[in-house]
Design goal:
The structure holds three protein chains of three kinds. Chain A is mainly α. Chain A contains 15 helices and no strands. Chain A has a single domain, classed as Amino acid/polyamine transporter I (Up-down Bundle). The longest helix of chain A is centred in the last third of the chain and has 34 residues. Chain A is globular, with a radius of gyration of 20 Å. The mean pLDDT of chain A is 88. Chain C is built from eleven helices and 13 strands. Classes of the chains: A mainly alpha, B alpha+beta, C alpha/beta. Chains in contact: A-B, A-C, B-C.
């Protein structure tokens, strides 16, 4: 199980490399983004450590079951939809963002909803699958995607076009006071652990998470790359002029001897896989939260034919996000993202805090 | 007895019934002449009966090859399977004297190998079982026998290593075999289909093989082998997708070369499924994907083609599928002629006539050749189908469509379970100490 | 049994979803579907000043005509030009002149006219950066005269139209120390960066091809000065450590030329207004009077060093006098000085900046002969 946790962690970290996190961070690069990175690194690692140790006290139980153990039923019934919305919003928002981006770059002649149609339907199909299927899928996707993303990052770092002077210049703004929105954005890189809220259900009883040093290590690596690579490529000032700074960064690299010359295409397709995977896990967990509202719901680890309820829930997710897509554009997106990143951070921190308290209480009687 | 049998088989001319006497004993014999080897009959029954060196009734009772039959209801069944029915002193016996027609000394022909074993399984079950027993000589090898098919009464053998096979899989397979409802079972593929829940599945959930080394390797890995009378192929289950991509020879040859070949096969798999779809998507939606020079040469070679790219692709795919189909069905000697005519002459002419571009010819041939690289026939068939949905997606959505289509197939594969076991999952080393995920609810 | 029941309930929903999907698919066919042979690939774009008031821009596109036979010199291309008030309007209007869809996805070469470059390149570059189908790694250059003339010129050896320009700048073909490639993303970076200024290579037409050996230095918007070929090479050597380049000196009136195989240059900008640069060059002598092998190499190295220092000083002073900063000295100053006012300080300091150059040349050999 160890590896599945890290797949989920790396997936979330890598996905956020591209979407709203760098935009928020780079906007604040002259006032506190750098120090926020350090704060985010500490907070993110702490939250990840805390939540994984707390959850390991409850093998085979997801967040809904743990809530039921300690809270009154009415509170559980109100909290679960909130969580469901959280997961649904995060993943749909990422999917919509990526659809818009893909549409701008790759298929500008087609309307965005056209592309969202297949992406969304694919996610509905994926999200209705069983937890095991999704974990297997996660493994395959990450093993295919992650090495290539790392390769592109490495290529970027080694590129002669990268201006280290610009990076050092920005790094000097470390003495500014961290801002809330940057910290929110920075901690989002570390947020892969929250997928355990549902996937903890498939953890076997003797499960202990090993090698947690990977969390700060990869987190730092990706956080630094997210923030500093675009600066190195687009300069300390030019970087804020780009809407999708990472696509532009990838477009600035070429593989002179590669079969596909422009790195941006490779990059886009890697991120297509990542976004789909993220939305599938997100919707699946959101679906589980909604289904768990009913006390009678019995979680099944594996099934080959998805229950009808799954289809209904995920189908309505698709419909909702589809409507959302029609109303959203890049500008509103970025505004929502900034607020969302902060709200999310507090919600997550509160959940983790609850889990810790509860896991202490559980330890005592045993 | 004879009267009753004559009533049961009223219209069959090949049912022989005799009542013979050697003075001390009256013997009634009934059998179906076309199923029985009459030499055996003479040696075992008629000669000892007439000479009577020993009282025949004692012979019948002492010789274990004469089995007593209590229930008259199974008379017809026994006769149809090549038994001879005897009535000696008011008790009934049967004697197995079936004549089985089969291919002699079978050689591997479907999955050929250069240095691996050349003997294949036999069409006769007992021969196959014999070969397998010889290659897998442990007392743990268990054999269970079933009969399936209302009319064909096909004998089915299930073999497994009782220490290594998963009991859950075993009980599932047993239930599946008992639940088969069919009149006639004539090929292993049919049996494999009947063992599966979903007849519309895209990928084979079991491995059909004629190779003995594959079977014994499978047994050692805890797989279950199902074989049927009259087919030289065995079914191995449960399998993972990666078993289908491995040729037996990979184990016999140089390690590095095997790794190279394995990765080559995965590349081939990717190429054969996506190449036509990618051609459409790139040529019609995103020509900027390639480097400039290649884009220009494609554009140049397509300049004479009057149709949109997907019509061109369909023309070529249609041609190549027909070619493959024709060369499979035709006798061996004509088959090669068909390929030559189709492949060389037609392709060349189609390109010169401006019906398809020269790049398309390359795309099609690469696609066809990559398909032949896949070592298991049933998988290469499924893969031949898979490219069509991808082509449709490419026509409507371009490159993202193709990518999504591929992703769909990955989800689909991950969602498959071969007899309750994950089908498309990487088994990585290093996690063995831990309990696996998903084992919570099984307590 | 339960699963079968579930499947029965599922079937209508799933088929319903499939039907909806199929229905939605139908009207989409053909959206954005344009075959490759129905596209005109733009291989190069030139933007000039037309000189007229109402339509200040003159847009020229070089379009490749796909040809099934590919041989050097066989290639055909078409050049379309139009005057327009805005750049994008010009491109749209050219579309009306053509029978196929215009595709900018493979356009890797942008040529800015001389007049435009001396006036203001901001609008043109903004347009390029904003368009989604123009690559960030496209090459931008300045025309020696009119951009239109560059695009009209078709070198004899071209297998694909535009190929010789791509090869010149891409580094796949020629690798000359006189050519400095400028990518679009880098141009945009330099235009916006504080403490680093843009430059553009200058393309001029010659008898049967192009000549790219000069570099135009710009402030944020327009050309300030143009470097000679020798200065361009020195710039490449000092800034990018470009090997396979040469340095010269004279021995008793005979030129000696050294091919550099290893260059390293390092500099610091201190807050008291002194730029210290250290250059190390190692290489073999390529051209020299006879018997250079037996000369005192230490003496020769000294001569190389003296000349290099002199040339570099001249280059720096020329750049400084023009008020531009293509090396990014200012950025280096900002990177090494922890002050929020670093850029302001730099701006005040740059006109008075003093250069101290310390060159070290190592002769590795004299080639195959003494």
């Amino acid at each position: 199980m160890n590896r599945y946790f890290y797949y989920s962690f790396v997936m979330v970290a890598m996905l956020n490399l591209m979407l709203y996190v760098p935009a928020v961070l780079l906007e604040n690069r002259l006032n506190g983004a750098v120090s926020s990175l350090i704060v985010a690194l500490v907070i993110g690692t702490l939250l990840a450590y805390a939540s994984t140790s707390a959850l390991s006290k409850f093998p085979g139980l997801g967040l809904p079951e743990i809530l039921r153990l300690f809270l009154p039923e009415w509170l559980v019934k109100t909290l679960l939809p909130v969580y469901a919305f959280m997961w649904f919003f995060a993943s749909s928002f990422a999917l919509i963002g990526f659809t818009l981006l893909m549409n701008r770059v790759l298929t500008p002649d087609q309307p965005a909803w056209n592309l969202y149609l297949i992406l969304g339907l694919l996610c509905v199909y994926g999200a209705t699958r069983s937890a095991l299927t999704i974990l297997y899928l996660l493994e395959i996707t990450m093993l295919l995607v992650a090495p290539l993303v790392l390769l592109i990052l490495f290529k970027g770092v080694r590129s002669p076009d990268l201006s280290w002077d610009a990076i050092y210049t920005i790094a000097q703004y470390v003495n500014r006071f961290p801002t809330l929105s940057s910290v929110g954005a920075g901690t989002f890189i570390f947020t892969g652990y929250i997928n355990m809220a549902i996937f903890n259900r498939v953890n076997p009883p003797n499960f202990r998470l090993k090698g947690r040093w990977i969390i700060p290590a990869t987190g730092t690596l990706i956080l630094l790359a997210t923030f500093f690579l675009p600066i190195g490529f687009h300069g300390t000032m030019g970087v804020e002029r780009y809407l999708y700074v990472w696509t532009q960064t990838a477009d600035s690299m070429t593989m002179r001897y590669g079969f596909i010359e422009r790195v941006v295409f490779v990059f886009l397709f890697l991120y297509l896989g990542l976004s789909l995977m993220y939305a599938i896990t997100g919707w699946n967990q959101s679906m589980e939260f909604i289904l768990s509202v009913s006390k009678k719901y019995k979680f099944k680890v594996d099934y080959s034919i998805a229950p009808a309820a799954n289809w209904w829930v995920c189908g309505s997710f698709f419909a909702l996000s589809f409507v959302g897509l029609l109303f959203l554009n890049e500008r509103i997106d970025f505004e929502i993202a900034e607020v969302w990143l902060i709200v999310r951070m507090f919600l997550e921190a509160a959940t983790v805090l609850f889990l810790i308290v509860v896991s202490w209480r559980r330890k005592k009687p045993i | 007895m004879l009267q009753r049998i004559n009533e049961l088989f009223a219209t069959s001319n090949d049912v022989k019934t005799h009542r013979i006497s050697n003075g001390s004993l009256i013997l009634e014999v009934a059998y179906i002449a076309t199923l029985v080897e009459e030499n055996k009959l003479y040696d075992a029954i008629f000669v000892p009966f007439s000479r009577e060196l020993k009282p025949f009734a004692d012979v019948v009772r002492s010789d274990p090859s004469f089995k007593p039959v209590e229930d008259p209801a199974i008379w017809t069944d026994l006769m149809l399977r090549g038994y001879v029915l005897l009535k000696v002193e008011q008790s009934f016996f049967c004697y197995f004297a079936a004549k089985v027609i089969r291919n002699t000394s079978p050689q591997t022909s479907v999955e050929s190998s250069i240095e691996g074993p050349q003997i294949a399984l036999s069409e006769d079950l007992s021969d196959s079982a014999n070969i397998i027993r010889a290659r897998y000589a442990t007392p743990d090898l268990q054999v269970e026998e079933y009969t399936v098919g209302y009319l064909s009464k096909t004998q089915i053998l299930m073999m497994f290593d009782q220490r290594r096979a998963d009991p859950k899989v075993l009980s599932l397979v047993r239930a599946k075999i008992r639940g088969i409802q069919t009149d006639i079972l004539s090929a292993t593929g049919e049996l494999a289909k009947a063992l599966n829940d979903n007849r519309k599945r895209l990928f084979p959930m079991e491995l059909i093989t004629e190779r003995v080394d594959r079977v014994s390797r499978g047994l050692a890995n805890g797989k279950v082998i199902v074989m049927m009378q009259g087919s030289m192929f065995a079914i191995i289950l449960p399998i993972t997708f990666f078993d289908l991509m491995v040729a037996t020879e990979d184990r016999y040859e140089n390690f590095w070369m095997s790794i190279l070949l394995l990765s080559l096969r995965f590349c081939a798999l990717l190429l054969t499924t996506t190449l036509p779809a990618l051609y459409i998507a790139i040529v019609s939606y995103n020509p900027e994907l390639f480097r400039v020079q290649l884009a220009f040469s494609i554009a140049g070679s397509r300049a004479a083609v009057p149709y949109p790219s997907f019509v061109e692709v369909f023309i070529m795919l249609f041609m190549i599928e027909m070619l493959v189909e024709a060369s499979v069905r035709l006798p061996k000697y004509i088959g090669s002629t068909a390929t030559t005519v189709g492949g060389l002459i037609l392709g060349q002419a189609a390109q010169q006539a401006g019906l398809v571009s020269s790049i398309m010819i390359i795309v099609t041939s690469v696609m066809a050749i990559s398909n032949f690289v896949i070592p298991v026939y049933s998988l290469s068939l499924s893969v031949r189908f898979i490219k069509y949905p991808l082509i449709l997606l490419a026509i409507f959505f371009g490159l993202p469509g193709v990518a999504c289509g591929l992703f769909f197939f990955v989800i689909y594969l991950c969602n498959q379970r071969s007899f309750g076991r994950p089908y498309f999952r990487l088994i990585l080393p290093g996690d063995l100490k831990h309990t696996d995920i998903g084992e919570v609810n099984h307590e | 049994m339960k699963s079968r029941a579930a499947r029965k309930r599922m079937m209508p929903l799933r088929s319903w979803l499939l039907a909806v999907m199929a229905l939605l698919l139908l009207p989409l066919g053909g959206c954005g579907f344009v075959d490759i042979d129905k596209r005109f690939f733009v291989v190069a774009v030139a933007i000039d000043k037309s000189g007229s008031e109402q339509k200040p821009y003159r847009i020229t596109l070089r379009l490749s005509i796909p040809n099934s036979k590919i041989e050097p010199g066989m290639e055909k291309s078409q050049v379309e030009t139009i005057e327009a008030a805005e750049i994008s309007e010009g491109v749209r209007r050219i579309k009306a002149l053509l029978d196929k869809e215009l595709d900018l996805g493979h356009c890797k070469m942008f040529v800015l006219g001389k007049k435009l470059s001396h006036d203001d390149i901001s609008d043109a570059v903004d347009w390029m950066v904003r368009r989604r189908d123009i690559q960030g790694s496209a090459y931008v250059a300045m025309a020696g005269s009119q951009g239109y003339d560059i695009l009209q010129k078709m070198p004899l050896s071209e297998r694909y139209s535009g190929n010789s320009l791509f090869l010149t700048f891409g580094g796949d073909g020629t690798r000359s120390s006189y050519i400095r490639t400028e990518h679009l993303f880098d141009l945009q970076r330099r235009r916006t960066e504080r403490g680093m200024d843009p430059y553009l290579p200058v393309i001029r037409t010659t008898g049967n091809g192009y000549e790219v050996d000069r570099l135009a230095l710009l402030d944020k918007t327009k050309v300030r000065t143009i470097l000679t070929p020798e200065e361009t090479q020195l710039f490449n050597q000092l800034d990018q450590q470009y090997v396979n380049s040469i340095i010269k000196t004279k021995l008793d009136g005979h030129p000696i030329i050294l091919t550099a195989t290893d260059i390293s240059s390092r500099y610091t900008v201190s807050s008291n207004g002194i730029l210290k640069m250290k250059v190390n060059i190692a290489g073999a002598i390529e051209e020299a009077p006879n018997n250079v092998f037996n000369q005192d190499w230490g003496e020769l190295q000294k001569m190389f060093e003296r000349d290099l220092e002199k040339d570099a000083m001249a280059l720096f002073q020329k750049i400084q006098k023009a008020g531009v900063d293509p090396f990014g000295f200012g950025l280096r100053y900002r990177a090494t000085h922890l002050s929020s006012r670093a850029y302001q300080e730099w701006l005040e300091m740059y006109p008075r900046l003093k250069f101290e150059i310390q060159a070290k040349v190592k002769i590795q050999g004299t080639g195959l002969i003494k």
